[in-house]
């Protein structure tokens, strides 16, 4: 993925989605963000910046 801003926006979107999901299902935010980050890193074409 060439566009750094798009990549940053996708990571922030994943973090926001994890936060909203954690509020909905009452799981720790940190735990859910780690799980979403692992899934995002595995299945989406995202790389660390």
Task: Provide structural commentary.
By secondary structure, the protein is mainly alpha-helical. The protein has one domain. Helices cover 76% and strands 0% of the residues. The radius of gyration is 11 Å and the shape is elongated. The mean pLDDT is 83.
Taken as a percent bin, the fraction of beta residues is under 5%
Largest sheet: none
Given the structure, what is the number of helices?
2
Please state the overall shape, judged from the principal axes of the Cα atoms. Answer: elongated
Rg, Å, rounded = 11 Å
Keywords:
2 helices, single chain, mainly alpha, 49 residues
Summed up:
By secondary structure, this protein is mostly helical.
List the SSEs and their pairings.
Layout (H helix, E strand, L loop, with lengths): L3 H22 L3 H15 L6
Helix pairs in contact: 1-2
């Amino acid at each position: 993925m060439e566009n750094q801003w798009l990549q940053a926006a996708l990571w922030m979107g994943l973090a926001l989605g994890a936060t909203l999901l954690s509020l909905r299902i009452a799981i720790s935010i940190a735990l859910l963000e780690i799980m979403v980050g692992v899934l995002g890193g595995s299945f989406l074409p995202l790389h660390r910046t």
